[in-house]
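Q: Hi! Curious about what HTH cro/C1-type domain-containing protein looks like structurally. Here's the sequence.
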Amino acid sequence: MVTIVDGLATVLRRHRVAAGLTQEELADLAGVAVRTVRNLELGKVARPRRPTLDLIADRLSLSAAERARLLDAGRPSSAPPVSLPAALPDFVGRRAHLRRITELADAAGPRTVVVAGPPGVGKTSLVVQAGHELAPRFPAGVLYVALRGMDDEPVTIADALGQLLTALGYGRLPETAEGRLTAYRTVTNRGRGLLVLDNARDEAQVRPLLPAGGRWLTLVSSRSRLGGLSAAERITLDVLTDTESQRLLTGAVGAARIGMEPWAAAELGRLCGGLPLALRVAANRLVIRPEWTVRSLADRLRDERHRLDRLHVGDLGVRSAFEVSYRQLDEPARRVLRRLSVAPLPAYSPELVAALAETDEATAEEILETLADAGLAEPARAGDGYRLHDLLALFARDRADAEDHPAEQLAARDRLATHLLRRCSAAGSWLEPEQPCSADTGFSGPHDALAWLDRKQIALWWAVRHTAAQGRHTEVLTAARDLYWYSERRHAALPWPEFFGLAVDAARALRDRRARATQENNLGWALRVTRGRPADAEPHHREALRLGRAAGDPSSVGWALRYLAAVLAARGDTGGALAHLAEAERIFATTGERLAGVVVARAQAEVLRSRGELQAAQDVLETALERWHTGVAERLPGVAIRGYLRTQLGMVQADRGQPDEAMTTLAAAVADFAAGDDVGHTGEAYLSMAAIALERHARKDAEACLDRAAEIFLASDVQHDRLAEVGRLRRSLRRQDARAG
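A: Let's find out. The predicted structure is below.
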């Protein structure tokens, strides 16, 4: 029988025991049957008679207040049961998730929502908050069970059912789990209620507890996504935003204290990684240490080696929260988590994990999924593998230091670096403008190779630095060779001056003058083109010139002259620049380096154009285009080089008063850059087209080209000086509109 007795059994039993009476003695004193007292204490009486309770209260010699509480407990309650824990007073964020849960609460049919996420991300806080906000919508009550799924001994199904039936006011509980399950299904087959199952281990712990009725909503929090639950909607929580982190700290610590040090509070939020548990621990430390400033706590947390130790207060600790999930993993998954920490990268694809853990990609992907299911990894936003939260990465590093020998960690780093640079060499071969690429590189073509390089930029930079630190100089020089044409295409992909600086150091260590001349040229190019520092580039090119001549390497000498010409032109010394280019042209004609000759021709045309020698510039460019024959130009790197020549030619044609021809040539250059996957120079071509359209008062064309150029420059994160040029042309366009108006 189902009754709502609101604690009468408990209140009566407590007073009887306090009076030192047995049930028989109390019944005899009150003049009622022993069965009456027994049924009252077992909760089997739905509507106890007031005279009976008066008699019992008299014989128990209760005070007026105690008598009132006993009589109140005996009154049938119309309020639905609510067994939720208290909501957090400083709950912040998650409004979109709460709105979605509210939508599901109002929908027809049984609904189950799984709230998943890493340890400490606030899953319990969200489901409890939702329960309190939605309680008025559920007349059958709001029930809560802490399943303790991550404990060594989670709550059993029988105990969970007992808690739920007791909360629903069920009378005497069946002894067996089967009996309780039958009773639970009977009770929940009617009415409209909300069930909150907190911290579930797996699907098997949840399924028997799902209400039988069609009007119940169930909220389940779990570190696992519980993919085996059918017809469930899943919400995966991320960390709090910077703004939400500051709101949490302000609510917990106080607006005055946080407001006194806003910059320190912002850093504190970042050091906690937006993880609600870490933020609450930090806030509690400030509350119990009123003499601490926010800055002093941020200073303590800045040390990565001790950050997790200091994110602990009382029974709250970030490390202990992670430990619980770590203990649930099998050893292969634990080992992979530790391996991820030895190479701190923004994302880990199965390819990289296979190299780190000495396994195959299929096994690596399976283990990454296991980590994700345990809330210890999450899909990377870029879609290339998985990532670790900053604090989880520190935890993984701690476990690696505690469980793995340093030699094992170094071996894992070496394997990953070797794998990355080997793949880099295969990818880079597709970007060589003139060298044929073998078919067994592991890439389907140049676009596939270029996409891989784009995805692995940060990992490649890590691999080069690790290799350099290990003194593997030959491998560093090989990487510089393999990535040279990638640097030409992606100016912002890597910090190229630092990269080629490592290559210079490697060549110097190997006492290889020829290699050092090449890398000094590359370093100077990177300083001038990617950092806009021609004055800093000049000494590197002069050193390359000296080394190339000493080593008898005409190619290095020719490239040094070409680059020095650019430095001289930037200073306004066009005569000196043309002289250097003429010498470089003679060298490359002798060595038969067709590509180098084309690059020199483009530079010559640029200098001639700056001097107003437009016909000479056009002749040089047209000759270079003829030399750059179709067979080479159609390959991905070659077609982009043809785009460079066409861009320069279009600008010369515009200067000569041939706007139609210029627009046609520049449109062809845009097509070349698109085919060659050269984003930055595509934007440059659109910028030139915008300038021509502006000159012709073709407003719509100018605006469209400027929009496209700005979009490209912003998306590629390169050539910010060109964004300034976009702004300058827009202002010219507005002035033109004003004059026309």
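A: A fun detail: The chain has 38 helices and nine strands.
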